[in-house]
Amino acid sequence: xxxxxxxxxxxxxxxxxxxxxxxxxxxxxxxxxxxxxxxxxxxxxxxxxxxxxxxxxxxxxxxxxxxxxxxxxxxxxxxxxxxxxxxxxxxxxxxxxxxxxxxxxxxxxxxxxxxxxxxxxxxxxxxxxxxxxxxxxxxxxxxxxxxxxxxxxxx
Length: 155
Description:
Layout: H1 3-34, H2 45-76, H3 84-93, H4 100-115, H5 119-151
Helix pairs in contact: 1-2, 1-5, 2-3, 2-4, 2-5, 3-4, 4-5
């Protein structure tokens, strides 16, 4: 890879990592506010607002990770772009997650969040988000640590 192209990618990675770190912080804040809630019908309007914020932040963080960061890492490591499944499988091989299935579940859940239409769907989605958020947080932290090899001053 030409040095100029690599430098552009490294700058893009740095920018996206900044967005990912901010997204992680607000996701963690939302999760800590919501983790004691259930997805039952006895939630207050304020609870729903908090849970809606959590689902949006989960979705945004998942998108940044799979659609931006993973692609840049693959390009820097001279991997063929491939499909989302390819990126997820490589993420498992890099040690970002113990299971590619978890990242696939995150992605599926992100798609469900974008297309939920009923209260029943919302209750199920909230339960899934509350269950999967800690794993997403753990994955994001692993990715940020991994990317230090690209963004350290020695590069």
